[in-house]
Amino acid sequence: MNIRARHAIAAALCSAAMAIAAPLAAQDQAPKEPDNEIVVEGEIDVDRGDARDQTRDITPRPTSAQEPLARFNKEICPGVWGLAPENAQIVIDRIYDNAEKIGVPVNDAPDCGANVWVIVVDDPHETFKQLRDKNDFLVRGMGYWERERIEKQDGAALSWNLVSTRSRGGLEAVQGANSDAVNETTLMSRTNTAIRQDIELSVVLVRRSELATVDALTLADYATMRGLAKTEEPNESLAFDTVLGAFGPARDVTRLSVFDLSYLRALYRSSPTRDARLALTDVERLMEEEYARMEAERTEQR
User: Fold this and answer.
1) Residue 219 to residue 254: CA distance in whole angstroms
2) Which of 5, 95, 165, 285 is surrounded by the most beta carbons within 10 Å?
3) pLDDT classification of 2: cutoffs 50, 70, 90
4) According to the UniProt entry, where is the signal peptide (predicted)?
5) Over the stretch 175-194, which tens digit does the pLDDT of each residue have?
6) Helix (H, G, I), strand (E, B), or coil: what is residue 192?
7) φ, ψ at 234 (rounded to 5°)
8) Model pTM?
9) In the prediction, which pLDDT does 62 show?
10) How far apart are the C-alpha atoms of 90 and 80, rounded to whole Å?
11) Residues 121-161: pLDDT tens digits?
């Protein structure tokens, strides 16, 4: 068995709360494996204002503009529950591949603990409610306003990230405590904060009936964009393609786009303590670099 397959079985999800999910869907409902290439399409000319506006639209507003954006600061390990093993394997491998393209460290050891979960259930909203009522590890520590934000999500998928506030060196901050974790003010600057926001666990719940209309790569790419960053589905008409709409009304983008890749690369190439105003300023430049790379590849193949 591929060592990346170890989270493709239901037994890996040891929480008793997950017993609320329905049995595995019939095999003919499960996503089928398509080609394994990320398809990136879009306009060659990138307007700085459009890139900035779209970046803001999909990024939840932080408590303070000086607060850093949430990201993984440790290796990721994907886990899948609710799919046939062969389809779960596709999703897991794709998330690993995406992370490596973006520059996110990965842990593919056989016994690594999953921290990016893709879970297929009959009713994501009902599942979230029951997880919350049981104070399951998948929601433990989530604040009131974050729960409210998740419950207001529409569509066939729900997603959230469990985030901890840490010092620049990685010590977990305890609000009000007199400790190094919250008193590194000497490290602050106009562009960097004394803290970072660490994603400890990400969860994407997807309605089982959607498996009839999406493939495994769409599921994995959507989970990549929701799991590796704290993002929201877009509220407005967009200038650039994004897989964040894969479970929305349009559903015309089914792969990570140039914008998606550039957004995640900008986040992970930035300092984890960079304040939110500046952390994603490179999205436009990275989009232009990606388009130039694609054009060079096309020219070489002619």
Assistant:
1) 8
2) 95
3) very low
4) 1-26
5) 544 444 444 444 556 677 88
6) strand
7) -65, 145
8) 0.84
9) 75
10) 10
11) 999 999 999 999 999 999 999 989 899 999 988 889 999 99
Q: Which amino acid is at 102?
A: I
Of 244, 243, 165, 251, which is closest to residue 200 (Cα–Cα)? 165
CA separation (Å) from 119 to 149, 211, 229, 265?
Answer: 19, 12, 17, 25
Tell me which amino acid residue 11 is.
A
Distance of CA 49 to the CA centre of its chain: 24
Q: Which residues of 69-102 are buried (b: 16+ CB within 10 A; e: fewer)?
A: bbbbbeebbbbbbbbbeebbbbbbbbbbbbbeeb
d(CA 230, CA 116): 12
Strands (E), the chain: 70-71, 78-81, 116-121, 157-167, 195-207
Nearest CA among 29, 138, 12 for reference residue 81: 12
Return phi, psi of residue 182, to 5°. -120, 5
Please tell me the predicted confidence (pLDDT) of residue 276: 86
